[in-house]
Write a structure and sequence with these properties.
This protein is α/β, with parallel strands linked by helices. It folds into two domains: 23-59 and 88-173, Rossmann fold; 183-298, HUPs (Rossmann fold), CATH 3.40.50.620. Helix content is 38%, strand content 21%. It has helices at residues 35-48, 60-66, 86-110, 124-131, 157-165, 191-204, 224-240, 255-265, 282-290; strands at 23-27, 51-59, 72-74, 81-83, 115-122, 137-141, 170-173, 183-187, 215-220, 245-250, 269-273, 294-298. Helix 4 (124-131) packs parallel to helix 5 (157-165) and helix 8 packs parallel to helix 9 (282-290).
């Protein structure tokens, strides 16, 4: 049931600078129901000259529930409580997969992005992580959660699981704030912060004669001397790639600082590393629960 993964060599960007996000794995769940987010991703992929591999996972846990005789659900058509039947669930999953395939093909073709598509079956988060072995970036919709009940504003169960477990960079597309707008970079001077800076440059840098996108940089340090040194260094590195910058200083390195910085800068996309002290462990979940914008977690 799985389509073959593409195997061609990726091309070199027109400006001659190789990019780090050349192979994007797009998990098509809630993402396929967010036209603005999918269009923003296609636009980003076009600028990065990246290939997009769409993945739909037929949720094995949902099918297991359908086999349980005591499970009922409310029909959207009749609003009555009916028994959950495996055949009905399988047909629904196949329909969603075909709809996702058509949507992906149409949007990516409109942006002239090379795309492929695959269907797998299993635990959704496990399959996404397993299929991302040769990807540079995993992209999921903010609400990706399978059949689980969603908490308004918070990312879905599957989105959180992939973000917390994957060893690849993960981009969560927020429905109210696609990743094509203003960017906030969290920088704390750690190796993770350096990786986040590299990722921000890759996304925002100038291409084909067009100016780079402006980036707001949150400097996360209690030491003013570090903040000033980082400001000078980071501004110079961004300017080399045609990116203008402005800086915000936050003396802490916790989730609350990043949330405050995102709101203060009006960010549509927040970029931060997850190995350093700025957002490790439970701090990642705290940021995701309150971000209010798309988030790129860099590893």
């Amino acid at each position: 049931m799985s389509a073959a993964r593409h195997t061609g060599k990726t091309s070199t960007p027109k400006d001659g600078v190789p990019g780090q996000f050349r192979r994007i794995l797009l998990a098509l769940d809630a993402t396929a129901d967010d036209p603005a987010g999918l269009d923003a991703l296609a636009s980003l992929a076009a600028r990065l000259q990246a290939e997009v591999h769409g993945l739909t996972v037929e949720d094995a846990e949902e099918l297991d529930l359908a086999d349980h005789p005591g499970v009922r659900f409310v029909s959207r058509v009749s609003t009555t409580v009916v028994r959950m039947e495996r055949g009905v669930v399988e047909r629904s999953q196949r329909h969603r997969a075909e709809t996702s395939r058509r949507t992906l093909a149409g949007v990516m073709a409109a942006h002239r992005v090379k795309a492929s598509f695959e269907v797998r079956r299993g635990p959704v988060a496990d399959e996404v992580i397993a299929q991302a072995e040769d990807a540079d970036l995993i992209v999921l919709g903010w609400g990706s959660g399978g059949f689980a009940v969603r908490v308004p504003g918070r990312p879905g169960r599957i989105a959180c699981a992939v973000a917390e477990r994957s060893q690849r960079p993960v981009l969560l597309l927020h429905p109210g704030s696609p990743a094509g707008g203003p960017m906030l970079l969290a920088y704390d001077g750690t190796p993770a912060g350096e990786k986040a800076l590299d990722a921000a440059i890759e996304i925002a840098r100038s291409r084909d004669g067009h100016a780079g996108s402006p980036v707001a940089v949150a400097l996360l340090t209690a030491r003013l001397s570090d903040a000033e040194a980082w400001r000078t260094d980071v501004a110079a590195r961004l300017a080399t790639h045609g990116i203008t910058s402005r800086f915000l200083h936050f003396p802490g390195a916790a989730a609350a600082d990043l949330i405050a910085a995102a709101r203060q800068s009006g960010a549509a996309l927040m970029v931060f590393g997850v190995e350093g002290p700025s957002c490790c462990g439970g701090e990642v979940r705290a940021v995701l629960d309150r971000a209010g914008c798309s988030v790129l977690l860099v590893r």
